[in-house]
Structure formats: structure tokens, C-alpha cells
Amino acid sequence: MTVADQERREKDLRGFQKRWQGIDRSKLSDADRINYDIFGRSLRDRITESEFKGYLMPITNREGFHTDFPQLALLDTPIRRRKAFANATGQGLSVDELVPLDAKASAELATLIVKAFPIAHTVITNGE
Hints:
This protein is mostly helical. It has helices at residues 3-21, 30-51, 83-91, 103-116, 118-124. Helix 4 (103-116) crosses helix 5 (118-124).
């Protein structure tokens, strides 16, 4: 991943944060307010880490992407082996950015996002 990729991700995070801030927290259920707060903190942490260029830090036995693995959970959301995922990755794109669009791959990815990140899905899709 290049520095330009990281800068693009930070810009995207700031856009998500702006949309997140536009959600009226008082209109959310108790459970959704908790998710809202957790998601907001996660966004702030990721933006701060990006500002300090944490992505340039070396991976050690105590720090790095692998330290989050114990927190991962198995979701009942299968992602099939589709050529669209390889094509998108090879071009540095999301499956949803491919032309022509692979509807099945996009649907699988959308289902995964909804199940893995329910409040993030609301922010990203603007509640749709």
C-alpha cells in the first residue's frame, strides 16, 4: 500500500466522520447510541493514527495489524471466489468500482459490510 493510498483512506475516513457527525444521536435507540459512540471513537482513532503516519511504523511482535486477530469473529456471510475480487484488487479498486459491475460480487460485499459493521453501513449509505 502506498502513501497515496493511505492519504486517500484518511480523506475517506474524514468524509465518513462528517457524515457520522450529521446523525442525530438523540434519535437513536440505546443500542444504536452505543454503536454510534464506538464507531465515532474508532473513526477518531484511525484519523489520529493516520495523521501521525502510524502506517509507517514497522510491524513487531507487539504491534501491527495482526494484534487485532483475536478480536475477529466468524460471520455467516460467505464470500465466493469470484474473478471480480481479483480484478478489483489488481487494479486497486473496490468491487463496486469495477466496470462492468459484477452484481453478485457487489451484493456479497454489501451483505458482509452490513453484518460486520452495522452502524458503519448506516453512515456510509446515509441511512439507506
